[in-house]
Amino acid sequence: MSACLSKLTLREAVHHLEAGECGSLELVDALLASIAERDPLIRGYLHLDPEQAREEARAADQARAAGRRGRLLGVPIAVKDVLNVRGQPCTCGSRILRGYRSPYDATVIARLRAEGAIFLGRTNMDEFAMGSTTENSAGGPTRNPWNLERVPGGSSGGSAAVVAADEALAALGSDTGGSVRQPAAFCGCTGLKPTYGLLSRYGLVAYASSLDQVGTLTKDVADAALLLTIMAGRDPRDSTSLDVPPTDYTEALIPDLRGIRLGLPKEYFEGAIEEGVKRAIESALEVFRALGAEVREVTLPHTPLAIPTYYLISCAEASTNLARYDGVRYGYRTPDAADVDTLHERTRAEGFGREVKRRIILGTYALSRGYYEAYYGRAQRVRTLIRRDFEAAFQSCDALVAPTTPTAAYRLGERLDDPLQMYLGDIFTVTANLAGIGGLTIPCGFTPEGLPVGLQILAPALGERVLIRVGHAYQSATEWHRRRPPLAAGGGRP
Ligand code: GLN
How far apart are CA 434 and CA 312, in angstroms? Predict the structure, then answer.
């Protein structure tokens, strides 16, 4: 039994715990065993505190015996190293936050904790969530469980890899331009980025505040619905959080698509899409039709402007958000600086990695006097056009479906020396963040090389129920989300 516990979905784990078929300690131990076996290869975790996790599991088992209930009582979850969990390190994959420990819980963490969840460990990420491969981490790269020579995607690559390798039942991530959806697609998991403002950003370390959103990496859509139900809702500590009434998203887990109109954005099917990705998406469209959906073409004409717009806005916001890391308050401080300017300068020069520095410089330039209007102001106006494209498309359909990424997982190192190529790979994911809408990626097949392909579903703002319905109906009719890499099936050592 315990060998299989690490493969469970969250809901299955809850069911086993409630039925008394296993204890939380047994569940945590099963995951720790799986981590001990696989993580030396995958390197999805940056930090683990097994004793703490076991202690919390014991406490959960006792609480259950004493009659306490909670929707996630005794259920372990992995957390991207960008969300504050009280008492745990929070380094954002950066040298500059080395040694920093969180004094408080992020709101989403507090909400999960109130339901009894246990926070198993910190997952690897691109430094400050800047990247698409997890290679920009001060902790070294994570590997893709489907092929150890490939990247897991990024920036929530650690979260995606540990869920795919059965080293976690589910994980949290953050998505500013695709960082939940793209790694979920590369690793064959389910990734949900909710509408901007649906989840509180309090306690999420900021990269680009107008785009950042917490998201989930899970084994299926039903688990994403459960986590969203627990975490969503207004938080007085985040003024951008939306005042939505409590919603049970699991009610949208309906296994058919009758009456649903799905739009195919023409621009997302043009251009350089890998053949294996295209094939997998095309067969998914047949499944949608068989489930009763009507499929039609729509257009998002400003798509070609999305990458420059996203990289301008995100770098501009990052350059101000990251100004706080100066060696005074948080983490790393350069030794022996003679004066305060030298302290700031050297701490930042030594603490930040290459990609973060590149973006701070680009962002500072875009915001500087004389250039602000030409770059930042213009990008904001194009952002409005992109949002309007979606509004127009949603006039004639309930959701859009498209590839999550133009290709499957890159080889390690393949795009590191060519940042532009790296940025261009984000073309299908950055648009949802610019428009503020939700997006869901689900596994829909494999390329001939055996790498997972992700299908993306996009819905109007606060259309999470549609995302969940479409994703769940697909998963009710297919088995792709149940596939596990050979590594996790217990055989096939690479
Ligand atoms: N890959 C994108 C970037 O590098 C998205 C990152 C993210 O969503 N945090 O900015």
Answer: 11
| Rounded Cα distance, 14 and 470, in Å | 24
Bridge partners of 438?
459
Residue from 123, 128, 176 to probe ligand 1 pocket by mutation (most atoms less than 8 Å from CB): 176
Q: Which residue in 150, 171, 175 sits closest to 162, CA to CA?
A: 171
**Helix 221-231 / helix 464-477 crossing angle, nearest 10 deg:** 160
Which residue, judged by its Cα, is nearest atom 4 of ligand 1?
Answer: 131
Place of tokens 């983490």: 331
User: Rounded to the nearest whole angstrom, what is the distance from the C-alpha of residue 224 to the centroid of ligand 1?
Assistant: 21
Asked if residue 221 lies in contact with residue 11, where contact means CB atoms within 8 angstroms, the answer is no
Atom of ligand 1 nearest to the CA of 129: 9
Identify the band that residue 271 occupies on the pLDDT scale cut at 50, 70 and 90.
confident
Report residue 272's pLDDT band, with 50, 70 and 90 as the boundaries. Answer: confident
**Atom 10 in ligand 1: which residue has the minimum CA distance?**
130
From the alpha carbon of 174, which atom of ligand 1 is closest? Answer: 9
How far apart are alpha carbons 332 and 420 in whole angstroms? 30
> Which tokens sit at 360?
């701070």
Say whether 174 is catalytic: no
C-alpha–C-alpha distance, residues 91 and 125, integer Å: 10
Cα distance between residue 226 and residue 117, in whole Å: 12
Mean pLDDT of 135-142: 98
What pLDDT does residue 2 have? Answer: 61
Give the separation between CA 409 and CA 418, rounded to whole angstroms: 16
Residue 461 pLDDT greater than 60, yes or no = yes
* 9 CA from centroid of ligand 1 (Å): 27
Query: Does the model's pTM come out above 0.90?
Result: yes
**Structural element, H or E, at residue 295:** strand 294-298
Q: List pocket residues of ligand 1, CB cut-off 6 Å.
A: 129-132, 155, 175-179, 207, 314, 426
Portion of the chain with pLDDT greater than 70, in percent: 98
Told to judge if 241 belongs to the known catalytic residues of this protein, a careful annotator would answer no
- Closest Cα to atom 5, ligand 1: which residue? 177
Pairing of strands 294-298, 399-403: unpaired
Could you tell me which residues come within 8 angstroms of residue 352 by beta carbon, excluding any fewer than 6 positions away? 94, 95, 96, 127, 322, 325, 360
Look up 7 and say whether it is catalytic.
no
Considering the candidates 80, 94, 132, 200, report the single residue annotated as catalytic: 80
91's tokens = 């380094």
Which of 179, 241, 314, 319 is flagged as catalytic? 179
Please tell me the distance from the alpha carbon of residue 289 to that of residue 97, in angstroms, as a whole number. Answer: 49
* Torsions phi, psi for 225 (to 5 deg): -65, -40
Residue 98's closest CA among 351, 343, 458, 294? 351
User: Are 211 and 204 within 8 A, CB to CB?
Assistant: no
Contact 456, 404 (CB under 8 A): yes
